[in-house]
């Protein structure tokens, strides 16, 4: 099953980017970078023929970041002429194909990259991809509420929502939620205590609330855009010297409701500890909306009663 997903993803990417090299090699996600190095060197040589005659001493590998769904590695290559090239090797987390549609992600990347978002796709392999290296720092949750950065995030998100990705424009939010629900409601744990805790969850109540929310949102006639769906601080990078903001990682991207994408971003102010008291207040939300709706004239008053944006307390 996994191999089918991998090769379908490669075929999708190649059908949209015929000049992107691909490799059938896999990298063991669980190894430390030093032990991964020989395999990564082999991968780089397989994908990029200009490096095929370089020995291992020309390559260095370091971990950049790692989460549930990805492990990012910075690979530096010293070419024969002394030029240093930095690339990012992104390894998919184990079993992430159960929650992430990798084909959908690979389909969108060329169009988002052409619009100036994220790193450039350089190559694909069996359990990951190679991208250009972004020289920037990852934001922390408190950074997102800094007014200047919040304004820039709003401007960039507006541009992101204007990118046209070929294919069905049907919102995928509820399809994805029902898919997640289906998997989450049919789990079994080997650990007795974990299983006992799991059995306290009322999935009947959860599905009832999901259906009710779906029916309520169906009355809103909400605008549908290509949404990021995971705009947390870890997917925002800033080059402080150039004052350039990058939106990265589109693995949850899909056509969805504009208000959901913005509301989900506001939830991410809560940080990894999920302290929802940190979510933006009404003034901070209005600041974001003004820069989203009219980046050129954000100081003008925005009538949010008719702009279909989520506002706390309404």
Automatic annotation (TrEMBL):
GO terms for cellular component: cytoplasm. Pfam families: Choline_kinase. GO terms for molecular function: ethanolamine kinase activity. The keyword Kinase applies. GO terms for biological process: phosphatidylethanolamine biosynthetic process. Pathway: Phospholipid metabolism; phosphatidylethanolamine biosynthesis; phosphatidylethanolamine from ethanolamine: step 1/3. Gene3D superfamilies: 3.90.1200.10, Phosphorylase Kinase, domain 1 (3.30.200.20). Keywords: Kinase, Transferase. Belongs to the choline/ethanolamine kinase family. This is ethanolamine kinase. The gene is LOC113691893.
């Amino acid at each position: 099953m996994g191999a089918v997903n991998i090769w379908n993803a490669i075929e999708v990417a190649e059908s949209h980017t015929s000049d992107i090299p691909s490799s059938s090699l896999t990298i063991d996600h669980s190894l430390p970078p030093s032990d991964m190095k020989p395999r990564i060197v082999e991968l780089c040589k397989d994908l990029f023929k200009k490096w095929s005659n370089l020995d291992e001493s020309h390559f260095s590998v370091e971990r950049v970041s790692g989460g549930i769904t990805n492990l990012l590695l910075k690979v530096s290559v010293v070419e024969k002429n002394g030029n240093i090239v930095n690339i990012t090797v992104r390894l998919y987390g184990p079993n992430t194909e159960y929650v992430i549609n990798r084909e959908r992600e690979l389909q969108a990347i060329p169009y988002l990259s052409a619009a100036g978002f994220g790193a450039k796709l350089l190559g694909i392999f069996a359990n990951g991809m190679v991208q250009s290296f972004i020289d920037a720092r990852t934001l922390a949750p408190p950074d997102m509420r800094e007014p200047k950065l919040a304004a820039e995030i709003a401007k960039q998100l507006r541009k992101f929502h204007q990118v046209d990705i070929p294919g069905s424009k049907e919102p995928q939010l509820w399809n994805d939620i029902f898919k997640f629900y289906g998997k989450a409601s049919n789990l079994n744990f080997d650990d007795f205590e974990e299983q006992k805790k799991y059995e306290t969850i009322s999935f009947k109540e959860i599905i009832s609330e999901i259906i009710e929310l779906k029916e309520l949102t169906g009355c809103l006639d909400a605008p549908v855009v290509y949404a990021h769906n995971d705009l947390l601080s870890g997917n925002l990078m800033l080059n402080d010297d150039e004052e350039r903001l990058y939106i990265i990682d589109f693995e949850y991207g899909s056509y969805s409701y504009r208000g959901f994408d913005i509301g989900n971003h506001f939830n991410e102010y809560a940080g990894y500890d999920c302290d929802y008291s940190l979510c933006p207040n009404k003034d901070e939300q209005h600041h974001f909306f003004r820069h989203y709706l009219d980046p050129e004239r954000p100081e003008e008053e925005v009538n949010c009663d008719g702009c279909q944006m989520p506002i706390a307390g309404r």
